[in-house]
Specification:
mainly alpha, DNA binding
């Protein structure tokens, strides 16, 4: 699995979960097999351009949105931030609020 495959898979999973859909529901709408969606989300398969377009259309996101946070160089600060955002987007709002509160506490403690 390449880093790009993993990131694309995470992005697909996050957008799918934001819609509240299962892998099967996304597969039905995108006219793809649910197993293939699962393999993409886990970074086990390389996606074709055609399937990426079908998935983006089904999720009602642009290709730009789907690819915007992909930066293979993990040493760049933007990459770290995009990974944080990607992980938070997959969480429920309650978890996001909790994590934000914990981050505030941690940063306040670190700044002392």
């Amino acid at each position: 699995m390449t880093k790009i495959q993993q990131i694309i898979g995470e992005r697909i999973r996050n957008f799918r979960k934001q819609k509240g859909w299962s892998q099967e529901e996304l597969a039905d709408i995108a006219n793809l097999h649910a197993t293939y969606i699962g393999q993409l989300e886990r970074g086990e398969k390389n996606a074709t351009l055609e399937s990426i377009n079908k998935i983006a259309t089904a999720l009602e996101v642009s290709l730009e949105e789907l690819f915007k946070s992909i930066q293979p160089n993990s040493k760049k600060p933007d990459y770290t931030m995009s990974q944080i955002i990607t992980k938070l987007q997959a969480r429920p709002v309650e978890d996001q609020k909790f994590i934000l509160n914990m981050l505030d506490l941690l940063l306040n403690w670190k700044d002392k």
